[in-house]
Specification:
Belongs to the peptidase S58 family. By secondary structure, this protein is of the alpha+beta class. The protein has one domain: L-amino peptidase D-ALA esterase/amidase. The protein contains 9 helices and 16 strands. The strands form 5 sheets. The chain has a 6-stranded mixed β-sheet, sandwiched between helices. Strands 1-2-5-6 form a 4-stranded mixed β-sheet. Strand 7 and strand 8 form a beta hairpin. The longest helix has 21 residues. About 55% of the residues are buried.
Length: about 350
């Protein structure tokens, strides 16, 4: 693998032709996304307006009223430089009772209120005859590409996003991922899925990728960071901070404790990409099961699911990088898309 062209070809060959096996240990579902877990849907609202480059992404875990039918859930905080809402109660009770909303750091408050208003529509007695609700809102800082002080995300946008989720959804520079950077390239939304035959179950992953130092980047096990740095020459560096949110869904009948163990394995997937969860990064993984009344297998049988969590995370981040498109935003800042960079490297070799 001496030539640059051979390295790039290897990456693209693995990505395009071997997604069902090859470099991957697990086969993927039909969409190779988190929505391969039946009942899970995803939606986006995007702001693409000059210096405003941001948005909202919503993940609905089920088609039923989740507030009335809470799902088993576990969370792992790999590094806590973050401003989430809802993790404390998930840690205590081990259940998810709302859709999950992703947005930029300074829009967490509006995302919380928008989620509450959405849930109140179908549960009008919340806070009266019924207990209050625990929305799960997670964030990354998109302030390099987005004028984050403009507070462009509104409650209405959050509610509209929650009401328009679907099985098929866009990835890359979309929704909450619009203004995100990853390894000094354009980051954003990525997804993947792994079918785990030992448990006859699917594990789907969705990431909001906004982290990583370019020099450390590895793609499909191939070190590419320094080569891309040399190609870009003048680029705004990115340290291994800025955050990543990893969401995992499964139809396996797992309990909250087991889901937390699975969520922790997201860190292994990030390590394969070259991340070490730097000081200023908010790296959070959340895993939930769509089985509201779990009948969990013995922990000794979880190994394949743990492996799928690591592989699915790695693949979802690569998906975000390859699906993202070039974005220019706040103060003229811009991030190039990995696909454009790889094309440029190929042409450079001709």
């Amino acid at each position: 693998m001496d030539s640059l062209q051979a390295r790039i070809d290897l990456i693209l060959e693995r990505w395009r032709d071997e997604r069902q096996l090859g470099y991957r240990h697990f086969k993927s579902g039909s969409n190779d996304s988190i929505t391969d877990v039946v009942g899970v849907t995803v939606g986006h609202s995007t702001i693409d307006n000059g210096e405003l480059q941001t948005g909202v992404t919503a993940i609905s875990p089920c088609v039923e009223n989740i507030y009335q039918n809470a799902l088993p859930c576990g969370a792992a905080v790999l590094n806590g430089f973050a401003k989430p809402i809802g993790l404390v109660q998930i840690e205590e009770l081990g259940v998810l009772e709302t859709p999950i909303v992703l947005t930029n750091t300074l829009s967490v408050g509006r995302a919380f209120t928008g989620t509450v208003r959405h849930v109140l529509k179908t549960n009008p007695e919340i806070g009266r005859s019924l207990p209050t609700v625990n929305p799960l809102v997670l964030e990354c800082n998109d302030g390099y590409l987005n004028d984050i002080q403009a507070l462009a995300v509104t409650e209405e946008m959050v509610m509209e996003t929650l009401e328009s989720t679907d099985i098929v959804f866009e990835r890359g520079s979309i929704g909450a991922g619009r203004g995100m950077s990853c390894f000094a390239l354009k980051g954003g939304i990525g997804s993947s899925s792994c079918y785990v035959p030992e448990l006859d179950a699917t594990l789907g992953v969705l990431v909001l990728a906004n982290f990583g130092a370019l020099s450390a980047l590895q793609l499909e096990g191939v070190p590419m960071g320094k080569t891309i740095e040399q190609y870009l020459q003048q680029h705004a560096p990115q340290e291994d901070k800025g955050s990543i949110i990893i969401l995992m869904a499964t139809d396996a009948p797992l309990e909250a404790r087991q889901l937390k163990r699975i969520a922790k394995r997201a860190g292994a997937g990030l390590g394969r990409l070259g991340s070490y969860w730097g000081h200023g990064s908010g790296d959070i993984a959340v895993a939930f099961s769509t089985c509201s009344q779990p009948c969990p297998p013995p922990d000794a049988q979880l190994d394949p699911m743990l492996r799928a969590a690591a592989e699915g995370t790695e693949r979802a981040v690569i998906d975000a990088l390859l699906q993202a498109t070039h974005v220019q935003g706040f103060d003229g800042h811009q991030r190039m898309a990995l696909s454009d960079v790889l094309d440029g490297l190929v042409n450079q070799q001709k």
